[in-house]
Structures are given as C-alpha cells and as structure tokens.
Amino acid sequence: MPDAIDMATRARSSKLSASMDGQEVTVAGWVQDTRNLGGISFIQLRDRDGTVQLTLPKKKIEPGLFKELTTIPRESVIAVRGTLKANKEARAGFEIIPSAMAALNVAETPLPMGVIDKVNIDLDTRLSNRFMDLRREQVLAIFKVRDALLGGSREYLSSEGFLEVQTPKIVAAGAEGGATLFKLSYFGREAYLAQSPQLYKQSLMGAGFERIFEIAPAYRAELSDTVRHLSEFTSLDVEMSFVKDSDDVMKVVEGLVAHAITHVSRKCTAELSMLGIEPSEQKPPFPRLTHEECVRLLQGAGKKIEVGQDIDTDGEKMLGDIVKKEHGSRLYFITRFPTELKRGTFYAMRLDEDPSLTGYFDFEFDGEELVSGGQREHRLPRLIAQIEENDMSPEAFEFYLKAFRFGMPPHGGFGLGVERFLHMLLRLPNIRECVLFPRDRVRIAP
Predict the structure, then answer these.
(1) Which of 55, 52, 51 is nearest to 36 (CA)?
(2) Before 57, cis peptide (omega within 30)?
(3) pTM, to two decimals
C-alpha cells in the first residue's frame, strides 16, 4: 500500500454526504463502471454500503492519475484520496475529485459475468461464479434482509427468556430415521451429519435449561431437485419446558414470526424496495385449522383427497389461497395431525382423548410449510413404545432416553427453516438464492 493512501482514514460510502463539501476523504472499493466523455470521466466506486461518484476533469487531474483511473478494468479494487464536492447532479448529491489512487488488485478481463450489465444470467452460471454474483446489489440486499430476519428472531427469543445454545452436528443417530442421513466415517466408526438438533434440544429440557434456541446448519440427504429444497440449510430450533399443550408452542411461533417480519419491514425498507417487496407487518393471532378442516376445505374446492390423507404440494398451495381469501392471512396453522402422518416423528405426543391424532402442527406461509412442531412425548414408556413402532431400537437412543429416566418436564418446540422463511418472505423463484454458497444434490462447489 503506497504511503499516499492511508486506509485508516477510509470512509464507507454511507458515511459521506454533501455536508462534507471541501473535505479531504479516502474511499476504497470496486470499480463498478467507468464513463469517458472526452474532457471529463466518471467512475462509480462500490463498497458494501453503496456507490460514490469519482469525477475526473481531464484538465484538473494529474495526467498519469487520469490515465490510470480511466483505463483500470471494471471490478478492480482501488483506494482513492480526494476532495469531496457537493453536486446536486450526482446520484448521492456529491462527488469526489481524486488526488491520489492505489490499485489494490487489478481485475482480469473478461469478467466471468457482469455485475451491473442489464443481461439475464441463468442461476447455474451465477452460482458457479458466486463471488461475483454476490457483488450485485440485489443479491447483497437478500443477505441484508436475512441478517435482519435472524436479528429480529434473536431479539424476540431473548426477550422471551430463551437461551441460545449450540449442539453437535456430528451425531451417532438420526432424529428422523436413516433415509435422509448423510453418513460419514468418524475415527473408524459410523456417524452422521445432524438432520436436526431434536434429540439434544429435548435433553436440554431434562437438564433444566427450560427455554433454548439454536440457529445452525442441518443436513438432509433428500433426492430432490425442487426450487424449495436444499441438502444443507439453516434451522432455527426452539424448545421450551412446562408447556400445557401445543398451543403454548404455537404462541411462541406466531410471536417469533410476526416480530421477525416487523423487524425486517422497519429495518430493510431500501432492500425490500430494491427487491420489489412491499413492507408488511403480520399481526397474530393467526388462523388455526385442524388437518381435517383443511382437507374438507380442499374437498370443497374440488381437490381429490380423503380425511387422514397427507396434503401434497399442490394441495398446500390451494389451501394457502383459500385461507388468504377466507381469513385474510398469509400465515396459518394446521393442527391435530393424524398420528399416521407423524408416526416417523416418534417424539410427537399423541392426544390422550384420541391417540389417532397428535398435538403436532405445521405453520404455513402462503401455502408452504415454514414450521413444524408441537408438544413432545415426555413419558418414557410411551416414548419407547413409539420408537419401537418405527422399527427402531431404543438401545440406539439410550443417550437420549437417559435424560427421560431422571426427571423430564412436559415440553415442546419447533424447527423453522431460515432459507424457507426468507424464500417466502421475498417471493424469490429459487431457495438457492437465499444461501451464500448453496448445497444441493448436484452442487458441492464453490
């Protein structure tokens, strides 16, 4: 770094304004675009916060500096020192007249893809050059919204007395059976990547933590190539003790989701506008419909489905439209799931008054499952019986069951897919756009 450019004084674009007219400033970033108009040239310099205009009057700029600035390739990284001048014609209301420049890294040409070019680029090309794709302001906006979504979620859960924890991601047994587990070798033993922190969350209820949440990766080896499935995703998991029933859990779900959406709407107005999303706040309580009621609604709309049958993707979308029309809500619960549909979720509590039903629920957003959860079975004999019903060995879950042998309170919880939430909130065409470097059935790099 040349002595002429002191990076300690560097200011990000958001910290500059026309009120600083006449001041010397230092900026650094990527050369987004250059326009040469003969006697004057302009450079748009981009940092994380936005862009600043560098104005180069040919007769007022040292010839060597003028040539270097006007010939450096787009997307090169430079540092510039210059004088800030108020200018109503500049996009930000000011410009910078450079007096010194340091080329920190000169970009090769041609670029693998454009950053500001008005050309449609297919998603596969974008993901193969993700470092470049992430420079685009619309893509950065997605991750600013994601940051606000997680910030709002943490804010709500902390205010409700939940403690943030981290549980293992290399596990000896799966929480939902072996069909979708990624197997790995662990010092000569067989292990797996965690599908869910479910078993550990419940163990922490036995440890007396009472209210916990975790935001962490989870893994599903599903042979699916849809626009809403990922092999590695981020799960926001919550568990809470001393619940009366699943309604206690649902109240936390709707409080969390409503607060997170409100937080995003208030903090990310510019990003939402850039993405074409109208800020909106969702106010609980949200509609609660039993699984049977949902099936009856679908039957009334002409869907061929029987009571007790699982609702497929098309049915979910139909149901989302029906609920929005009849209840005026994009968000709603499906409750009292048939036990047969949740049998693989061996820890789900069945209703004492009707064991053919569980207290489990799904929370839907525009006809797509966002959350699944409910009250857990905390009574050891029943839990063991439900494990055996799923053709699994209780001995394989002894580390988990041990916590139930020595004082386990009634408890419940849920898991929320962060990418799924963002995908629905921003109405993006593909969930892979919600991940910095997505992993699916065919993509393991970059």
Answers:
(1) 55
(2) no
(3) 0.93
Residues 92 and 50: their CA atoms lie apart, in Å, by 10
- Token pair 């609660």 in the structure block, residue: 288
Q: Does the pLDDT of residue 4 top 80, yes or no?
A: no
Q: Burial of 185 by CB count in 10 Å (0-12 exposed, 13-18 middle, 19+ buried)? A: exposed
3-state helix, strand and coil shares in percent for the chain, rounded to the nearest 5:
35, 30, 40
Examine the pLDDT at 42 and tell me if it is beyond 90: yes
Of 198, 153, 146, nearest to 174 by C-alpha is 198
Task: Return d(Cα 59, Cα 68) in angstroms, integer.
Answer: 15
Amino acid at 184: L
Buried b (16+ CB within 10 A) or exposed e, 45-72: bbbeebbbbbbbeeeebeeebbeebbeb
Q: In angstroms, rounded to a whole number, what is the distance separating the alpha carbons of residues 226 and 235? A: 19
Region 373-386 average pLDDT: 97
d(CA 380, CA 163): 26
Q: Which amino acid is at 317?
A: K
